[in-house]
């Protein structure tokens, strides 16, 4: 198997011909055995640059389209004519690839919204901790001030008070360090929430475009079904006319034989 850029090309002609045959003829279990996550994006027909997903779309093999999408097939790979999977879906009126993509986008949006909620909860907890630590620092500072005033007032070297003062000073230093750490964490979480919000907005926009394409395909399919119904009526009319002509022809033959 050779590679050109990020696209794989197989040199195994037997694999290519079998893959195309099985996809086109609907031998789906054989197709599933042949393809996996490692070779799902392999070009199996060098003449047109088609991957397995392209052929499945062309012949409307919805089971294999869905299977390839579950294997995370690359929908942006283009054929030699410059068409990707979405372009071929529009050409051959196959909406399943849009449905699967929309479903994955919706699942991603749900997951991102969940992460955003959790991060906001963490942010709220961080704010609460930050407030508590500020109050603790203020209380410690106030206590140190009281102790200093008491030491100045008493004007004596009280060993016990000096030890408590030193301990409080150490605690204050530790609290300040923890306070600074939480502030950095708060800033990092806020940046992550902002980034996830931007990603969520982008995905919602992409999802809207895909839904509009899906609506276009539904409308197109209805028109095609109406045209097909008209063609069936015309075909039945031609068949009836042909039968009548055959009957007339046989009648003429019988008359000619009698003559």
Q: DSSP strand (E) fraction?
A: under 5%
Helix content: over 70%
Which structural class should the secondary elements be placed in?
A: mainly alpha
Tertiary shape: rod-shaped
Count of helical stretches: 7
Largest sheet: 4 strands, mixed
Count the beta strands. 4
Low-confidence segments? 2-6
The tally of domains stands at 2
Task: Determine Rg (CA atoms, Å).
Answer: 37 Å
Mean of pLDDT: 85
Assembly category: single chain
Summarize the model shown.
The chain has 259 residues and is mainly alpha-helical.
Q: Which terms would index this structure?
A:
Serine Threonine Protein Phosphatase 5, Tetratricopeptide repeat; mainly alpha; 4-stranded mixed beta sheet; 259 residues; 7 helices; disordered N terminus; rod-shaped; 4 strands
């Amino acid at each position: 198997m050779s590679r050109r850029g990020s696209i794989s090309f197989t040199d195994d002609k037997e694999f290519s011909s079998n893959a195309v045959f099985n996809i086109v003829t609907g031998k789906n279990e054989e197709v599933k055995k042949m393809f996996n996550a490692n070779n799902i994006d392999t070009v199996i027909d060098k003449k047109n640059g088609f991957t397995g997903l392209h052929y499945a779309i062309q012949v409307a093999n919805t089971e294999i389209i869905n299977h390839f999408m579950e294997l995370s097939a690359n929908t942006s790979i283009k054929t030699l004519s410059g068409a990707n999977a979405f372009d071929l879906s529009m050409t051959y009126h196959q909406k399943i690839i849009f449905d699967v993509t929309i479903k994955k986008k919706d699942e991603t949006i749900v997951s991102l919204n969940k992460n955003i909620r959790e991060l906001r909860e963490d942010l709220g907890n961080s704010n609460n901790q930050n407030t508590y630590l500020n109050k603790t620092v203020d209380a410690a500072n106030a206590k140190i001030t009281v102790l200093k005033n008491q030491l100045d007032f008493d004007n004596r070297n009280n060993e016990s008070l000096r030890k408590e003062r030193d301990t409080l000073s150490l605690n204050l230093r530790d609290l300040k360090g923890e306070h600074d750490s939480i502030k950095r964490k708060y800033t990092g979480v806020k940046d992550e929430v902002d980034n996830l919000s931007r990603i969520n907005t982008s995905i919602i926009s992409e999802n809207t475009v895909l839904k509009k394409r899906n609506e276009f395909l539904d409308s197109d399919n209805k028109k095609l079904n109406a045209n097909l119904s008209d063609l069936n009526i015309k075909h039945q009319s031609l068949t009836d006319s042909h039968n009548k002509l055959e009957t007339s022809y046989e009648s003429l033959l019988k008359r000619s034989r009698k003559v």
